[in-house]
Specification:
Removes the phosphate from trehalose 6-phosphate to produce free trehalose. InterPro entries: HAD-like_sf, HAD-SF_hydro_IIB, HAD_sf, OTSB-like, Trehalose_PPase. Its EC number is 3.1.3.12. The protein has 2 domains: about 160 residues, Rossmann fold; about 70 residues, Alpha-Beta Complex (Hypothetical Protein Ta0175, Chain: A, domain 2), CATH 3.90.1070. Helix content is about 30%, strand content about 20%. Bound molecules: ligand L263DTV3. Ligand L263DTV3 binds next to strand 7.
């Protein structure tokens, strides 16, 4: 029996809203957060797709919004950053931030100590959390996780944060934050409202986004289950972006 086409799961252009993860989905994974490169043509593809679907295109990332603006300036209509803690619903609009407990100061110093015990590991600070990266020292991943779990179980902040598994990284993240909430928030305002979300991602946090899209009657795709890698996903997006605005169905 032939594999059902991915297009079977796609709402038509007039009903679809694209909510896309960044790292590992729109761009290839790189050795460090700073060293990702945006492939030539990706911005044009996203802008064309945005045009086809009436502007309903958002990036939903674990990164802060300013980093998405840096890599994809003036490209998505909306951006949700830090897994949905921060949401900007429209270009130039205000950034809405969830009110969350601050990361306890002693944890920041403790995480720096944890990272320095494993040369190659590093801490990435975020406004409401931090990430312990171990891509350069993969064999230390489990030990770093154990230390981080011990840390967040104690003192001020315990019971308010959890460890989110990421790609070669552990993120200390406030409870109650998820890409599912980000999808729900984005889909409440124009031009997303009234459309069906199509969420695409590659990581554990993206499963929340896919669940959020499905709960709203939309659909989700995951790399590598649905596309072998970001390159294959970008090629698919490029084909979709060639659909004529106003067309009833997607160009394959
Ligand atoms: O939700 P995303 O847009 O996928 O962001 C998830 C995290 O991505 C970044 O870390 C990951 O990508 C890096 C660059 O490819 C890679 O070096 C690292 O190992 C990955 O974990 C980013 O640094 C995090 O802040 C994001 O939460």
């Amino acid at each position: 029996m032939p594999h059902p086409s991915r297009f079977d799961r796609l709402p038509p252009p007039a009903r679809a809203a694209f909510l896309l993860d960044f790292d590992g989905t729109l761009v290839d994974i790189a050795p460090t957060p700073e060293s990702v490169t945006v492939p030539p043509g990706l911005r044009d593809t996203l802008l064309a797709l945005r045009h086809v679907c009436g502007d309903a295109l958002a990036v939903v990332s674990g990164r802060p919004i300013d980093q998405i603006d840096h890599f994809l300036p003036d490209t998505p209509f909306a951006v949700a950053g830090e897994h949905g803690i921060a949401v900007r619903h429209r270009p130039g609009g205000a950034i809405e931030r969830a009110t969350l407990p601050p990361l306890p100061e002693p944890w920041i110093a403790a995480c720096e100590r944890i990272a320095s015990a494993f040369p190659g590991a590093r801490v990435e600070r975020k406004k409401a959390g931090l990430v312990l990266h171990f891509r350069a020292v993969p064999e230390a991943g489990e030990a770093i996780r154990a230390e981080a779990e011990r840390l967040i179980a104690e003192g001020e902040g315990s019971g308010q944060f959890h460890i989110q598994a990421a790609k070669m990284a552990w993120e200390i993240k406030p409870d109650g934050v998820s890409k599912e909430n980000a999808v729900r928030a984005l889909m409440q305002t124009a031009p997303f409202s009234g459309r069906l979300p199509v969420f695409v991602g590659d990581d554990v946090t993206d499963e929340d986004g896919i669940r959020g899209a499905e709960a709203l009657g939309g659909t989700g795709f995951r790399i590598p289950a649905d596309f072998p890698d970001p390159d294959a996903f970008r090629a698919w997006l490029q084909r979709l972006s060639r659909t004529a605005p106003g067309a009833d169905s997607w160009q394959d």
